[in-house]
Amino acid sequence: MPKIEVLSREVQILTVKEEDYICITDIARYKDSKRTDYLISNWLRNRNTIEFLGIWEQINNPGFNPIEFDGIRKEAGLNSFILTAKQWIARTGAIGIISKTGRYGGTYAHKDIAFEFASWISVEFKLYLIKEFQRLKEQERKTLGWDIRRNLAKLNYRIHTDAIREHLIPPELIPSQIALVYASEADVLNMALFGKTAAHWRDENPGAKGNIRDQANSAQLVCLSNLENLNALFIAEGHSQPDRLRRLNQIAIHQMRILIGDDRLPLLEGSQEGGDAPSTVEGGLP
Known about the structure:
By secondary structure, this protein is α+β, with helices and mostly antiparallel strands. The chain is 59% helix and 9% strand.
């Protein structure tokens, strides 16, 4: 379960049906760590709170019980009126507030409602809460975008290796021989796009994490996916490895020039930067 730190307080985030719920029990601890349930119940007694929760539920919850809500709204503000989170959920069928037990127990509220509760606890805390929550979402967006690009390259690589298995590998090869063929074909793409083999890159970057493709930028990953598909096609057509390498290198140069000049491409960038357009491969062809 993800957490954010707000003014030296940990606040847990729960995802339910792709919606973010923030632990208002953690928010309440900022004001009084020993009476969180009391603070939440006291907030729920407020007539303005009930009005806000009712409107939110009517907008977002088709199963909300308006009759029970009207009854609660009429009682709100009276000295005798008491309402807990569990009672609100049970009576109205509310989905904006969730009461959990167990290891990650506490009262959670949809982010819209949690920010409203935070305002009641502390305006300063609310502002820092919004800031840290937005930072978490931006971090998740960047991570997701990078994973999508890496998975795209991996899926296309499966197409690539299947073509090698069907057209290049003779029958009855032992696994180590098959691995050698795959490594060779992988370096055809590395040479075409990066101008060096994976081993050459490791020799140049002994302390770097991952491999040459992990350091690729968005333009290079897009180009790599295209090269994998084209190499699989060239293999099926029976072209020799040196011929394929020459053709793929020229295609990579052409595509990288287009991709680098595309103003939309930075929207795909993740945490990794760098990498230049491929240079023409000269000599040393397999």
